[in-house]
Amino acid sequence: MFASVRARWVRGRNAALFERALCDGRLCRPCVTTARLRAGVTPCQPPTFDAKLLTLVAIHGFLVLSQVLRTIGSARIRQEDAVERELWHRRDVLKTMSLAAAGALTGCASGWPSRTQRTGSVKFSAGTGRPKLKAPVNATDCHHHIYNSQYPVDPTATLRPPDASVEDYRALQRRLGTSRNVLVQPSTYGTDNRAHLEALAAFGPSARMVAVVNDGGATDELKRMHAAGVRMVG
């Protein structure tokens, strides 16, 4: 088609313009467009773009922007966390210093405590610290024993622990926060309740006891034990 058009216009006054149109038809210049119109050729169209390519470019730009915003947000969060940790660290230091100062003042006022009071260690107890939960008023330990080597051990007894005195148990009460207790006659002494009756009297009205008696126990003996604080026999 271009060859026939060129043949028709080669001798015309617009031959030079037509030559330029043939040599560079992609340029949308006014002169080229005029030559094409006169020659019956469709003028150059504006460049077209692929819709898929435009979509891919837009998606890529969105992903890049999202990554940049995510990076900025993560950096800001890390900075805020660092500031918060620093604030908590300062609070912990101030709290520790305040507690240390209060403890020092308490120690000066009441005298330096003994090793048992400082560590909370109690004889025959594996723990050293106070319970996390505070015991309620009149909290009761409903089963414990006292051992005293001054009293004879039952010949058939297999459990023969060392002495555990009333004072040892009171130290445990102070650490646990309990105020009442129930003594239970151990198999170590059989039906000889004297060791626990003595401990029951030492504890006073805040304690009760479970005794062990023979089937033919005398009524007077049971009344005496009841008056001392025994509330159950086995």
Query: Spans of 5+ residues with little confidence (pLDDT < 50)?
Result: 1-14, 17-28, 108-119
Number of helices: 8
The helix fraction, in percent, is 40-55%
Strand order of the largest sheet: 1-2-3-4
Characterize the overall form. elongated
Mean pLDDT: 75
Computed CA radius of gyration, to the nearest angstrom: 51 Å
H/E element order:
HHHHHEHEHEHE
Profile the largest sheet.
4 strands, parallel
Strand content: 5-15%
Tell me the distance between the termini.
126 Å
Derived structural class: alpha/beta
Oligomer: single chain
Please report the total strand number as a whole number: 4
What is the count of structural domains?
Answer: 3
Q: Any overview of this molecule?
A:
This protein folds into 3 domains: 2-39, no CATH class; 49-112; 140-233, no CATH class. The protein contains 8 helices and 4 strands, in the order αααααβαβαβαβ. 9% of the residues are buried. Strand 2 (180-184), helix 7 and strand 3 form a beta-alpha-beta unit. Helix 2 packs across helix 3. It is of the alpha/beta class and 234 residues long. Mean pLDDT is 75; it is low at 1-14, 17-28 and 108-119. The protein is elongated, with a radius of gyration of 51 Å. The chain has a 4-stranded parallel β-sheet.
